[in-house]
Automatic annotation (TrEMBL), chain A:
InterPro entries: PEBP, PEBP-like_sf, PEBP_euk. The keyword Coiled coil applies. It comes from Ascobolus immersus RN42. Residues 35-46 have a biased composition (Low complexity). Residues 109-136 form a coiled coil. Signal peptide: none annotated. Keywords: Coiled coil. The lineage of its organism: Eukaryota, Fungi, Dikarya, Ascomycota, Pezizomycotina. The keyword Coiled coil applies. Residues 35-72 are annotated as: Disordered. This is PEBP-like protein. Transmembrane segments: none annotated. PANTHER family: PHOSPHATIDYLETHANOLAMINE-BINDING PROTEIN (PTHR11362), PHOSPHATIDYLETHANOLAMINE-BINDING PROTEIN 4 (PTHR11362:SF82).
Automatic annotation (TrEMBL), chain B:
The keyword Manganese does not apply. One of its GO terms (cellular component) is mitochondrion. InterPro entries: Ribosomal_mL40, Ribosomal_mL40_fung. Pfam families: MRP-L28. One of its GO terms (molecular function) is structural constituent of ribosome. Residues 23-33 have a biased composition (Polar residues). It is found in: Mitochondrion. It comes from Ascobolus immersus RN42. Gene3D superfamilies: 6.10.250.3440. This is Large ribosomal subunit protein mL40. GO terms for biological process: mitochondrial translation.
């Protein structure tokens, strides 16, 4: 494929640009170190390339009003500025991703760069269209629908403009990114949906959290749970010593914007001796937790202020019970901020009904997690330390 | 007969060897026997697994691509550019076909309203002679001759 791709790429380069550069490049068999501008390499090394905004604003369509300022949401294509700074300091040119001396790779970069410029033109066109719709169309549900679909298309275009950029791939693979740009949100979401989300759903379904606590869950945000700094995989049986102190929670939404969430930890496996059954217990309830695509820490160091409705109750399991499930539910407050004092006076730990809480307070689950606890060596000490009765009792199965 | 067989022995080793000398099948040397496990007469693994092994580890099979990160990144970049180029070519071709179709349709519409009673239009859309472009010599070559003997005796070159 490499040989075929190389000849074909050179052919397409010949088609798209009649610049003498590529011909000279092929003839000399040498590789230029500048991939951004068509100027000779000596000039390119000494003068900084124009910022991308100049390149893109010049290519505005003529029949439309002047475009809004350039999309600052796109990833920067090159690291040329850093490159030049380095040159001033040392007199040598640093090897970057954009100037790796491989001929086919350089040709591929040219193709991708040209495609990106086309995409940016499309983005500007779409932005201008959205502006026009916003100004001229009559207010109403129809306008909202049109604007929503146009915005979705614009977001797609922003992703398409950057998705082929090796610099973006490099940044994402090395974890050097934030979710402020659509491309990184897209990539992070894709990565999460590839493995972490299916794993979570498998655990929730196999251990019957889904029909037991809420009828269904469709997570759209990643939830990261840490006990004493250790990241917990969903569904693990944890030692009681580890779960004695409250966990820290990160919520990573892949859509932009501020959100207020409520975090609840519910145990559906509390033995109910009177009815010979099991019932629910609320272990922790924190409301009005502000999170956004840039601020993930919901609870823990660096988290913003939130209202603790119900303090963390140490999870305990009595001897003879196989294990107990503890479901962490992250619910978005669709009705805005909740009245903390009202909740504190109304919410009860025992027989906590998650569904009615969600219905009353207009909450919708956007993320979930779970862990399990069982009777282990430390459980007796944990129960004694926290004044929880029942450490001296054992459950036995009664045959009937 | 036996001499022939003996001369073959070097080439076909299993022909003359008595049954007891057959190469011993691979038998587990562990002391604990696993109950219920079938001993296959040939020994070894499932033939499907053997086949996969054969094709995976055959010396003619190229080794899997193992790239360093940067080399993989270059590979990826070139691949993406190549896919992009192909997609653009495909789109261009489709657009060209669409343009040609639209042009033909518009021409036919004009012929319809040209005022000659639709004569030119009828000629343009008639399917007479369709499928015989280039004459009989350009028939698609097939393995066997056609049903009618493969020879058209009535054919005359025009």
């Amino acid at each position: 494929m490499a040989a075929a791709g190389r000849t074909a790429l050179s052919a397409c380069l010949r088609q798209i640009s009649s610049r003498p550069q590529s011909a000279a490049l092929r003839a000399a068999g040498a590789v230029r170190f500048n991939s951004t501008s068509a100027a000779p390499s000596a000039d390119a090394a000494s003068t900084p390339p124009p910022p991308p905004s100049d390149v893109t604003t010049s290519a505005a369509p003529k029949d439309l009003p002047p475009p809004p300022p350039l999309v600052d949401e796109l990833a920067s294509q090159h690291m040329e500025y850093e490159d030049l700074k380095f040159k001033v300091q040392t007199g040598r040119r640093r090897r970057t991703l954009e100037n790796m001396p491989f001929e086919t790779y350089q040709m591929a970069l040219q193709v991708l760069k040209k495609d990106r410029e086309e995409k940016i033109k499309k983005i500007q066109l779409e932005q201008a269209r959205i502006e026009r719709v916003r100004e001229t169309m009559e207010e109403g549900p129809e306008k909202d629908t049109v604007l929503r679909s146009m915005t979705r298309k614009l977001d797609e275009l922003k992703v398409f403009a950057d998705i082929n950029n090796p610099r973006v791939k490099f940044n994402f693979d090395t974890g050097n990114y934030t979710l402020d740009k659509p491309i990184y949100r897209y990539l992070a979401d894709r990565k999460w949906r590839a493995l972490k989300r299916p794993t979570l759903m498998q655990r929730l379904e196999q251990m019957n959290v889904v029909p037991d606590i809420v009828p269904s869950i469709n997570p759209v945000a990643d939830v990261e749970l840490r006990f004493s700094g250790a990241v917990i995989q969903p569904g693990r049986i944890l030692s009681s010593g580890l779960t004695e102190k409250r966990p820290t929670i990160k919520v990573i939404p892949f859509t932009p914007g501020e959100k207020l969430v409520t975090i609840a930890v519910v145990n559906p496996d509390v033995p109910d001796l009177e009815n010979d059954s099991f019932t629910y217990q609320l272990h922790w309830l924190v409301s009005n937790v502000p999170i956004s695509h840039l601020h993930h820490q919901a609870i823990g160091t660096g988290a913003q202020k939130s209202d603790t409705i119900m303090e963390y109750l140490v999870p305990t399991v009595q001897k003879g019970i196989k294990y107990a499930r503890f479901a962490v539910l992250v619910m978005e407050q669709e009705g805005g901020k909740l009245d903390a004092e009202m909740l504190k006076s109304k919410v009860v730990r025992e027989r906590f009904n998650t569904r009615s809480f969600m219905a009353k307070n207009k909450c919708e689950i956007i993320g979930a997690h779970m862990w399990r606890n069982s009777w282990d060596e430390q459980m007796k000490d944990v129960m004694i330390r926290n004044n929880i009765p029942g450490w001296d009792k054992m459950f036995k199965r009664v045959r009937d | 007969m036996s001499r022939i067989l003996q001369s073959l022995q070097g080439y076909v080793p299993s022909l003359l060897r008595p049954i007891s000398q057959k190469p011993a099948s691979r038998v587990s040397t562990s002391i604990t026997q696993v109950r219920g496990k079938k001993k296959s007469s040939r020994g070894g693994k499932d033939p499907r697994i053997q086949l996969i092994h054969y094709s995976l580890y055959h010396p003619l099979t190229p080794r899997p691509l193992k790239f360093s990160y940067l080399r993989h990144l270059r590979h990826w970049t070139i691949h993406r550019a190549w896919q992009l180029y192909k997609a653009n070519m495909r789109r261009e071709r489709e657009l060209e076909l669409e343009r040609m179709y639209n042009s033909i349709r518009d021409s036919c519409e004009k012929l319809k309203t040209i005022g000659d009673g639709g004569r030119l239009y009828r000629i343009a859309i008639s399917k007479q002679g369709l499928g015989q472009w280039g004459g009989i010599g350009t028939r698609i070559p097939t393995e066997a001759p056609g049903r009618n003997g493969g020879w058209d005796y009535t054919y005359k070159n025009q």
